[in-house]
Amino acid sequence: MSILIKDASIVLTQNSERNQLRNVDIYIEDNFISEVSEKPVSVEAEHVINARGMIVLPGLINLHTHVPMTLLRGYGDDMVLEDWLNSRIWPVEAKLDKDSISAGTRLGLLEMIRSGTTCFLDMYFFEDIIAEVAREVGMRAFLGFSLLDFGTPEYKYEELFPACENFLRRWVKSDLIKPVVAPHAAYTCSAETLQKSLDLAEKFDVLLHTHCSETRNEVYSVMEKTGLRPVGVFKKHGLLCERTILAHCGWITKNEVSEISRSGSKVAHCPVSNMKLATGGFAPVPEMLMENVPVGLGTDGAASNNTLDMFETMKFTALLHKHHRWDPCVLPAQQVLDLATISGAKCLGIDDKVGSIEEGKLADIILVNLRRPWFTPVHDPVSLLVYSARCSDVYATIVNGGLLMLDNRFYTLDYSRVIKEAQIQAYNLTKS
Amino acid sequence: MSILIKDASIVLTQNSERNQLRNVDIYIEDNFISEVSEKPVSVEAEHVINARGMIVLPGLINLHTHVPMTLLRGYGDDMVLEDWLNSRIWPVEAKLDKDSISAGTRLGLLEMIRSGTTCFLDMYFFEDIIAEVAREVGMRAFLGFSLLDFGTPEYKYEELFPACENFLRRWVKSDLIKPVVAPHAAYTCSAETLQKSLDLAEKFDVLLHTHCSETRNEVYSVMEKTGLRPVGVFKKHGLLCERTILAHCGWITKNEVSEISRSGSKVAHCPVSNMKLATGGFAPVPEMLMENVPVGLGTDGAASNNTLDMFETMKFTALLHKHHRWDPCVLPAQQVLDLATISGAKCLGIDDKVGSIEEGKLADIILVNLRRPWFTPVHDPVSLLVYSARCSDVYATIVNGGLLMLDNRFYTLDYSRVIKEAQIQAYNLTKS
Lengths: 432, 432
What we know:
Two copies of one chain form a homodimer.
Chain A (H helix, E strand, L loop, with lengths): L1 E11 L7 E10 L2 E6 L9 E4 L3 E5 L1 E6 L15 H13 L4 H17 L2 E8 L2 H11 L2 E8 L9 H15 L5 E7 L7 H14 L3 E5 L3 H11 L3 H7 L7 E5 L5 H10 L2 E4 L1 H7 L7 H6 L4 E3 L12 H16 L7 H8 L1 H6 L17 E5 L11 H8 L5 E6 L2 E5 L2 E2 L4 H16 L2
Parallel strand pairs in A: 1-4, 1-5, 6-7, 7-8, 8-9, 10-11, 11-12, 12-13
Antiparallel strand pairs in A: 1-2, 2-3, 5-14, 14-15, 15-16, 16-17
Helix pairs in contact in A: 2-3, 2-15, 4-5, 11-12, 11-14, 12-14
């Protein structure tokens, strides 16, 4: 496939100089960005996109989600976490099957593609189904196979590790899909589960993803059981290492930030979900950045967000930290855009391949249409993206050189069918 | 004018029972809601809107903004408040004239209409120009004539009160436009200015709008000057009364909440602006509601938000208070939708006329298009509106029975011209 983006009004390259280019042509050949030029590029291309009046930027990277949970958007808001899990989420999750997972994944992918996300890190059940769907749709996906002491809706505990190994073997050489080992959390995984997880991740040389210190309860219950806080548990069992991405880190200490920094672990910050679930804590991102911890942004599942909107997550990130520190200067717009693009790529170990618009990189690119009242005037395009853009302003989404959406037309998903099947599956899951 | 809304999938009436109706026709004749019926309404109408797949709800009420500041969206983000005011906002405001005010107002109205706001409470300079534009465009507007000890970009101090009186006289009998007396704040208004403001508001029997305890600095500087906190100053001079709407109330005490409650004053909560400016404080809305203080939501100006998006403000409201109190149950979706509709109307003293969809009320109504990935599934329509809707999902905006926007087409504004003139004026104001 080839795509020619013509006459883009503004290109936020997100390269190391954070160059902003004006009136640029971008030529995409096969999977790669072949040319970025301030002179007109004259080539034939399968798709020619007129990008006048558009901002072009790297696709957004969602560093923590549970994509099939999109089916549970709005199913039990405004509830105490324990009630919500006990009376809503867990009973429904027990009913999950391949059809509901498939429908939920398609719905989530539809929303991500519509809203400018080109890569995501998932952690859920039936991850093999999610991988099939994501590959078919053409999304870049890091897919965490969940490991818990109690088993999952898909496997009993004794079946889990062999199944995970099969999953890893099946997908480890895939192009768009990268398998990830995902021990759920320190409070749901024994020392044995954690160690076997690490063994598998090392054996296949893949990433490891886990929840870490999302709530105070979690921290205290882990301390009661092990005498250590979650970060300490992960450290003890060797999981605090370069291949690990920790979701949330809402209740961690200053020393733990330093531990994470020394270990090379990464952090997925999920402010909207943390605020909606009222966990009280959220990752101390400015302190983490000061200690050179790689940080990316995640929406968490739509069940606790209630969207997969990374634009919204950027604005919440900026505002939550400014508010918390009484400092409007902290996390300025450019830094927040970095978190959602190149820094997310760094967390996934693919910043040499995606996360910026540079010749030779893979073409994960989105276009944002400036023809909206909230994009006038253009004092600063980065500010507009972080503080004013709505996810629905995304005009085109390109992943790995493939055009997935243009002007609300989807190339690899049947919009009406996805919506209909999601509605049916959501109804079946939640009817009593 | 007559409008027939056909077959609305869901109507959130926001009436006293908060009824949700399905498959409803709504007939609007002249300025009023003439019929709301679950049986098909067969009448001729100037506009017939097919509302299948739509949620219909009362228009959103923005209870605090500075509409011409839309020109300064993104002009100086991530700065300390004092620097921002000194080096960016005030130098530009000194250059304001009728043309820039007119262009900024049109831009702000365009954004409000696009995003489902049907009524707003403003406070700025050149309010007479704002009134002319708002009337021409057909928006419901409560317009605060700013009064400050130092004068304004439009008037010297000695000219202010006669000009304000002229403004009040000119607009007090207007239909859509309601003039408001707006002493800026306790730290910018002397006792004399406050008392003369109150006299004028009483003479013309209009609302009074002021900033109250937005920042800690403000509270301390007022205490140093007067020995009282801002709420105390307003009380002393009689401004703490039923006709007063206090913006922000970010740094108030529990006793002050009770004072406000006893006085009958209202509060405009502006979470996005408070968080972006990192004032640290924000209105204690749950405590205010417990004491029966009428509360509405405001965006504040786009210079500190950076949008006029009331959907975003609803989500920030819900999440900020949940987060702050570590309580996900506080400010549930229905209560937040109330703040943005019927409760905003109550603050303005017009809840008998707008703020809900009921026969005989004025037709301030919006339609939201559910054909978006983030509106599936429909477990709870109120949750979808507060936690998932993007302002761009608004399909139609009706004010006072007049169709202002349908499917991104504007009936009383020339989109391209508004954008172009705003760009020119913004450039002229900010070039050095």
